[in-house]
Amino acid sequence: MRYHKIPDEAIRRLPIYLRGLLLLSEQKQQSISSRNLAHFLGVNPWQIRKDFSYFGGFGTRGVGYDIKRLIKQIKKILKLDVVHKAALVGVGNLGSAVLAYPGFRVYGFDIAAAFDSNPKKIGRKIKNITIEDVSDLRTLKKRTIDLGIIAVPCDAAQQAGDALVKAGVKGILNFSPCYIAVPKKIKVITIDIAMDLARLPYYMPAR
Amino acid sequence: MRYHKIPDEAIRRLPIYLRGLLLLSEQKQQSISSRNLAHFLGVNPWQIRKDFSYFGGFGTRGVGYDIKRLIKQIKKILKLDVVHKAALVGVGNLGSAVLAYPGFRVYGFDIAAAFDSNPKKIGRKIKNITIEDVSDLRTLKKRTIDLGIIAVPCDAAQQAGDALVKAGVKGILNFSPCYIAVPKKIKVITIDIAMDLARLPYYMPAR
DNA sequence: GCATGTGAAAATCTTCACAGCA
DNA sequence: TGCTGTGAAGATTTTCACATGC
After folding, report:
1. If residue A164 lies in a helix (H) or strand (E), which one and from where to where?
2. Per-residue pLDDT tens digits for B177-186
3. Are A93 and B94 inside 8 Å of each other by CB?
4. Segment B82-131, tens digit of pLDDT
5. Which domains occur in chain B, in start order?
6. How far is A70 from chain B (nearest CA, A)?
7. Which nucleotide is nearest to B62 (CA to C1')?
């Protein structure tokens, strides 16, 4: 059956599956059942099957899923079958950690440029990337960079967002803890690392 | 009306409201309507009202919400009315950024200890915190530290989680991109910064 | 036999419209 | 009048049970 609408929640889970499958693939495993993959990832088997079924189903009954094939399919759905270049704005503590983070690679991301407003930082090199002046953000268009990563404080976040939108990026990962207004067709995903910690105590028993 | 079950999603949103209210409070604003708060945060007014109503409602009809009072109420719900001490495991790039991140403060978090397994790092000081050996994690119990933050690579994450659980933490913020098995009563929230980026292209129009 | 794929039921969450109160 | 609080409707998501196909 073809589904009319694919749940956003299913899309949110696909990268989880993908990461696990990439790990298993490295271990030379050929195929896996929803049951085993679920156990490996700490989720439910029927959730996995349902999520895949939204796209038509990728497995073989009685056998399971071919890992290599499944990886390809998920990458295609998520549009990760091409390398995406990203520009980082803000090379402070968090920004530097993002630049050095090895985890982006597995999904096919390439942080290809970094910008800062601090003259002391401009021109410095981190991981083969020379830090540029934020006012040069408009050069992005020519460089086929379609993603922006914001790692500046709140009060500079909207400005960074505006500059990235102007530079032609289609999606933004926002590490600042503030709302950024953008045109509707630009997708913004905000990660506030403190905010996630903030809902942890709620679930903890009183001491 | 009293609700039997409070949606997890509402809990997830409370820190967003809290952060916005804290900002407004700094600007000396006394009260605010759901409409204005919603606009400020980029969410819906009825969502805000509904979320607050799960806890009995905090506003005054015809007027709005008293900001100071509302902050207190949300903090109490999230159990943020007491300072929570956290222990960081893994002082690499990401761990250092977490240690230096100023955003935890507003929610009343205090990263009170940091651990690493690298002998070269042990004893070094970052932000008034002396890095300790991971094997000393068991000393946490005596220090009233009830939260753990994991910032180590995948292959060391489960081990770090086990050690934190043994040390008596009740909640874990996991920055490693891997599933960590813990006893049921321990709450784990996982943030994989690459995974969030991974679902961005899906929402972007093809170039 | 075995594991997927899926309709249908159940649970959860969001939106709405308006009653209730300052 | 204005804005909150909320029951009810609507939409979405999860869970389940089993039909389907290798």
Report:
1. helix A154-166
2. 999 999 999 9
3. no
4. 999 999 999 999 999 999 999 999 999 999 999 999 999 999 999 899 99
5. 8-77 (1.10.10.10), 84-195 (3.40.50.720)
6. 16
7. D3
pLDDT of residue A5: 85
- Minimum CA–CA partner of B76 in chain A: A202
Whole-number CA gyration radius for chain B: 20
- The secondary structure of residue B170, as a DSSP letter, is S
Whole-number distance in Å between B50 CA and C12 C1': 15
* pTM of the predicted structure, to 2 decimals: 0.93
